[in-house]
């Protein structure tokens, strides 16, 4: 066989959906998973069980692959440097990936390359947070642990110095950011290959509930062409300047006074790009694979006027399969994507996608399907 | 887990693509394959190695699944009846499947339900073939072994009694059919579920070269609405009358004098439906899974004005992966589907799909990509 082996570290739903994209490409796809019942390990023919926090396991896995990539950003930079020193091809590489792992490094670098961000600085203690609040015009301020946060974890909105103590208990540096008065959240997703080709997906609107992505609308409604191009340019600049290979999601604030500010980065397929499986000519997963293999990238354009993705979170009702009967009979056009994960309240266990011409209709259909699967509505 | 396990007998590309469709549905998918390097066994997490021609292996596999289905029609009817007697759920069941396994049984049944077919009858020997030729107005006539043929194998076009000897050597009954003066070949694909719901895909034109499908155009160009509805009705009638569960492909002749005649049946996902992966709201693979699980069926409508699928056959050049560089750089919109099979001349090793508004452009792009992958063109 002349087809290369792509190894993805992590066995979550992103690896699962990347496997789905790897099948038609004919490339070999292997995951490093911690257990056989992990989301991706259930479906990937070539699941390698091991502990990614153990350098020996990671090395054994990496040596069996032509290129190594990731379904999350938790692998320590030192491990990735060790692999690179042994001629493992790591994409994105540690020099890029650190910006998605450490929010302090990310903010410093984005400032250096002139990308607009909320005002921010590392803070030493609650008193320093109070000083920062004064610098940016008052409370509340946002505190983030520089490492280890995701889906709303590791983020605090604090209203006074007394409330600013919890973030310091994790023992990692804490970043303070101004609380941006945003009109909405956007995401600009791009994919960049080692030889420098890049493609930009349509800019989407992302609606969060309790810090977790609830809904993504592609393209972002009523976003001006200028604003969309500005958001795509920001993402392409970051990808190029940081040397990203693969998919880069740039989460953005659109402020009430008309500015675009960078909130977070993710260097891997991302929830804000799940709509592309059904809604774009080339999905984020396929383009991530093409990029890490240094193949020419696929067309990122939308296939429908509107595509809406709604996450399915775990609710109180564990049997989502039974709910298929109603959801599929009611709407033969809804695309269901389940991740093979046990249902736990608030856990992302799947998503649904609907494409169409009428945004209100498309949103209502996607919302209904997700809510019914969760069990929060019963008709 | 409350998700059912679907078992597919056979490890070819149809099982591989069904796996791809099973991932988002969240259902468990298992294949019975003969070797770990078979097309589907490479990618399916849950590949069961065994010999489908051995009833014990088949039974062990089937008992581990909630429903059993097929990526080909080679499993003996007696084995399927044995499984059903042991309460295995087999879809399609042996009473339906026999019509896709035995062309003699199929022709007799289609005549009984009034579906138009080429004139045909079982023939005893070359002299009887000559008699049949006289009955239908002269040579040539088409001879087919009633069992075991596919992709042009088991089919002969004979011009005299002397040329009619080969088909009888296989030791199975031989069916003679008039050589239809067809304008083109069409395919009508439908999916039917156990509770009787059915959906019909747009009727496609299928272009064969040397008895092997080369290209499928969806929808069939310049097919009148009446003719399309007639073809869909024929397929729905067959599915209902024969009790098909799952995907049914009905290969049709459109004659020069304006009739639609049934050529062949396949009760599984079929090459004439590969275009649906990229070109329809719900692919044939997803709808086959939904049907065998008795879930409501998905929308079969096309997503683009035109979708063209061209098969990639093995050529003289074994390294198709290297050809990706040119194919993907030249056309970021072409969808490549490779099956993980070693390249052998004439073997189906993949397909490409292009969607768009201009049929000539779409056909040219798909043809170019397939020819370049095969190695029959170099620029």
Automatic annotation (TrEMBL), chains A, B:
Reaction catalysis annotation: 5-amino-1-(5-phospho-beta-D-ribosyl)imidazole + hydrogencarbonate + ATP = 5-carboxyamino-1-(5-phospho-D-ribosyl)imidazole + ADP + phosphate + 2 H(+)
Record EC number: 6.3.4.18
Any one GO molecular function term: 5-(carboxyamino)imidazole ribonucleotide synthase activity
Binding site for ATP: 103, 144, 177-180, 185, 263-264
Similarity section: Belongs to the PurK/PurT family.
Protein function: Catalyzes the ATP-dependent conversion of 5-aminoimidazole ribonucleotide (AIR) and HCO(3)- to N5-carboxyaminoimidazole ribonucleotide (N5-CAIR).
Record's protein name: N5-carboxyaminoimidazole ribonucleotide synthase
Source organism per UniProt: Streptodolium elevatio
């Amino acid at each position: 066989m002349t087809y290369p082996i792509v190894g993805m570290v992590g066995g979550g739903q992103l690896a699962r959906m990347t496997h789905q994209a790897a099948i038609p490409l004919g490339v070999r796809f292997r995951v490093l998973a911690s257990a056989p019942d992990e989301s991706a390990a259930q479906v990937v023919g070539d699941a390698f069980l091991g502990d990614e926090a153990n350098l020996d396991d990671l090395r054994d896995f990496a040596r069996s692959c032509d290129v190594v990539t990731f379904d999350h950003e938790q692998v320590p930079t030192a491990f990735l440097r060790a692999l690179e020193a042994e001629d493992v091809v790591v994409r994105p590489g540690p020099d890029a990936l650190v910006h998605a792992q450490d929010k302090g490094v990310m903010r410093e670098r984005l400032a250096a390359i002139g990308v607009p961000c909320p005002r921010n600085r590392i803070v030493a203690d609650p008193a320093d947070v109070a000083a920062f609040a004064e610098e940016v015009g008052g409370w509340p301020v946002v505190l983030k642990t520089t490492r280890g946060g995701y889906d709303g974890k590791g983020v605090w909105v604090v209203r006074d110095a007394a409330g600013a103590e919890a973030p310091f208990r994790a023992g990692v540096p804490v970043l303070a950011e101004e609380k941006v008065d945003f009109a909405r959240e956007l995401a600009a997703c791009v994919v960049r290959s080692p030889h420098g080709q890049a493609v930009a997906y349509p800019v989407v609107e992302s609606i969060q509930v309790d810090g977790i992505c609830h809904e993504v609308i592609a393209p972002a409604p009523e976003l001006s062409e200028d604003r969309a191009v500005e958001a795509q340019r920001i993402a392409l600049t970051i990808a190029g300047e940081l040397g990203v290979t693969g998919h880069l999601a740039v989460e953005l604030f659109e402020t009430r006074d008309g500015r675009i500010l960078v909130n977070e980065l993710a260097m891997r397929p991302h929830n804000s790009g799940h709509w592309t499986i059904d809604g774009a000519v080339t999905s984020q997963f396929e383009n991530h694979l093409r990029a890490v293999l240094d193949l020419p990238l696929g067309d990122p354009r939308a296939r429908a006027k509107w595509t809406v993705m709604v996450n399915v979170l775990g609710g109180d009702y564990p049997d989502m399969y039974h709910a298929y009967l109603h959801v599929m009979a009611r709407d033969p056009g809804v695309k269901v994507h389940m991740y093979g994960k046990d249902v736990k309240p608030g856990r992302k266990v799947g998503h649904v996608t609907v494409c169409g011409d009428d945004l209100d209709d498309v949103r209502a259909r996607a919302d209904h399907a997700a809510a019914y699967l969760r069990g929060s509505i019963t008709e």
